[in-house]
Amino acid sequence: MSDPAFISASALRAYLELNTVSSSSKYDDSTLGSNIRAASGFLQRRTGRQFADQTATKLFTTQGRASITIPGLRTASSVDLQGTALTADSTYWLLPDSQNTGVYTGIQVRAFGSRSYLSNPEWFDRNLDRQWERYGAGYSLPNDLSITGTWGYTDANLPESLLHATKVLAAWYTLRPDSVLANVSVTAEGTVRDYSNLPPEILAFIHDWKLSDGAVVVG
């Protein structure tokens, strides 16, 4: 599957002040489009987020935890835990992202502790009431949580900070070929441009938007 493109080639060309299509292959639509897709995909992977609009069923392994991180759910049409259908705001709860952008980056699948039979629809079938299961580490079947729904953002609602980060990173990809052998380039005026590190805007975006399991509830 190809990477998404969060901005257009014309938007990148305007950001770089390349107001006319250059005959150079570095600045034609094909190359700019490739850089945009590479930047868009990179931002998704490095943050663990689903930014692109997608309708899909995604599988997760809960390891017996009460809540887990998910990459960015907009709406859920069905949620199943170990083959049992759950009900919104009754047996599962969606947790919004920290930016409050309208997507959910966490799901809680029980309101009860792991030592209660109410915490698992297969509590007795799987002998979870046995002492060694109750007091041991979290257990679950692989891919025990299934979520079907729409993920990410519609094109009209992509966060502005994502669009800006995509432009910055795609611009960096576009200009970096001049320094590919040494990580620096020298302008006609003698100014040295260092391309050895990602732009600070990208590092800040990854820091602010990266998902982690730091808030996972185990009990």
- The number of helical runs is 5
Series of secondary-structure elements, N-terminal to C-terminal: HHEEEEEHEHEEH
Gyration radius, to the nearest Å?
22 Å
Strand content: 15-25%
Going by helix content, strand content and strand pairing, the class is: alpha+beta
Relative helix content: 25-40%
Number of strands: 8
Q: Which regions are unreliable across 5 or more consecutive residues at pLDDT < 50?
A: 131-137, 214-219
Spatial shape: elongated
Question: What does the largest sheet look like?
Answer: 6 strands, antiparallel
Span between termini? 38 Å
Give the mean pLDDT. Answer: 85
Briefly say what this structure is:
By secondary structure, the protein is of the alpha+beta class.
Give a verbal description of the structure.
It is built from five helices and eight strands, in the order H-H-E-E-E-E-E-H-E-H-E-E-H. Helix 1 (9-15) crosses helix 2 (29-47) and helix 2 packs across helix 4 (160-175). The strands form two sheets. Strands 1, 2, 3, 4, 5 and 6 form a six-stranded antiparallel sheet that branches. It has a two-stranded antiparallel ribbon with strand order 7-8. The chain is α+β, with helices and mostly antiparallel strands and 219 residues long. The protein is elongated. Helices cover 26% and strands 21% of the residues.
Which key terms come to mind for this protein?
219 residues, alpha+beta, six-stranded antiparallel sheet, two-stranded antiparallel sheet, 5 helices
Topology:
Layout: H1 9-15, H2 29-47, E1 54-60, E2 67-81, E3 84-85, E4 93-96, E5 104-108, H3 131-134, E6 145-151, H4 160-175, E7 184-186, E8 192-194, H5 200-209
Antiparallel strand pairs: 1-6, 2-3, 2-5, 2-6, 4-5, 7-8
